[in-house]
Amino acid sequence: MKYEIVNPDALGRPRGWSNGMLAPEGGRVLFVAGQIGVEGGTALAAQFQAALANVAAVVEEAGGTVADVGRLTIYVTDMEAYRGSLPEVGAAYRAVFGKHFPAMALVAVTELVDPRAVVEVEATAVILRRALPARRLAALGARAALSTDR
Questions:
Q1: Given this model, what pLDDT does residue 134 score?
Q2: CA separation, residue 50 to residues 11, 43, 84, 120, 145 (Å)
Q3: Is domain 4-147 annotated with CATH 3.30.1330.40?
């Protein structure tokens, strides 16, 4: 799916994110719950990559791709660790999202629900109905399946 990237000149050129993402008409909004990545290990960048992969898995299950993600919110428990591992964090991001840069926010928090987690990522995606896999269309019922564009 193609978002219209909205980056007002007055805000300067963003680096590694977009200020706004305008979704095309006809998409379904998918809200992805906060995903952690403790299976990636203890390092922030490794957990970040695993959390992003978990986000991607949810989006793909709904029939989309990471290119359908319009917003990410990233929660970290240690901002200094985040800043100190920016090259690794950038590589982890590119490994999952490539050069797709949705609107993002990064927030430092005192802790996450799972005490092993040092990062959590939530997302919002817009998935065009025609992108839904057959099993998801079946779940919507025969009438919905007939009304989609293929």
A1: 60
A2: 31, 11, 19, 10, 33
A3: yes
